[in-house]
Design goal:
It comes from Kaistia soli DSM 19436. It contains 1 helix and 8 strands. The protein is mainly beta and about 220 residues long. Strand 6 and strand 7 form a beta hairpin.
């Protein structure tokens, strides 16, 4: 009987010791969860773009001679961004080639007048709000373009670099730490410029406004 009691006491002691050990055992430490770093938009970038343009030409002589025109375009851009928290500020310059042309016969089969826009560019400031790898933005600034007025059958023409202003908006997406893509709409007003075709009809005033929709890729340094 004494042996049974001693065995029972030993079992109880061992059980209590095991329970105490379980209570004091610390759980294994868990690895810290590291959140991925937000994309940093700061830095220089260069890129290419392509899209479509449509616009309107008007003149002070033949009110109905010129009108709407449309064309594809392609070009390059370069700029710099600086990010402050989620606000991204930057400057950008771009230049594109297009063949926006319109015109009609003034004297059917004999005399035709034409206007066209060959080069279109801008230097703008941008402001955006970064949502990690997404960047909606607006832009605005100085615009310029090479426009030409001509009387084709008489081979009288004059070209000028007209200047004006532009505004636009777009959405940019970072695919990697160096590659971003964007879609953008811009409105250009190049004002009016004087074109001297004096051998034919003298000087005319030609005004141009153009809309551009484009997509492109940037390489961020």
């Amino acid at each position: 009987m004494k042996r049974v009691l001693l065995a029972g006491v030993a079992v109880l002691a061992l059980t209590a010791a095991a329970s105490a050990a379980d209570l004091t055992m610390e759980p294994a430490p868990m690895a810290p969860v590291v959140a991925p770093a937000a994309f940093d938009w700061s830095g220089f970038y260069v890129g290419v773009h392509g899209g479509g343009a449509w616009g309107d030409f008007s003149t002070n002589i033949w009110q109905d001679a010129f009108g709407n025109a449309s064309s594809v375009l392609g070009g390059v851009q370069a700029g710099y961004n600086y990010q402050i928290n989620q606000v991204v500020l930057g400057v950008q310059t771009d230049l594109a080639y297009t063949n926006l042309t319109t015109g009609q016969d003034v004297i059917p089969g004999l005399v035709g007048v034409n206007a066209n826009l060959n080069w279109l560019g801008s230097t703008t400031v941008r402001a955006g709000y970064a949502i990690d790898t997404w960047l909606p933005y607006v832009k605005g600034g100085f615009a310029y373009g090479e426009t030409k007025a001509n009387i084709d059958s008489l081979v009288f023409s004059d070209s000028k670099w007209a200047t004006g202003w532009t505004v636009g908006a777009g959405l940019e997406k970072a695919f990697t730490k160096n590659i971003t893509g964007f879609a953008e709409y811009d409105y250009f007003d190049l004002g009016s410029a004087a074109y001297d075709i004096s051998n034919a009809i003298g000087t005319i005033e030609l005004k141009n406004t153009t809309n551009v929709v484009k997509v492109g890729l940037n390489y961020k340094f």
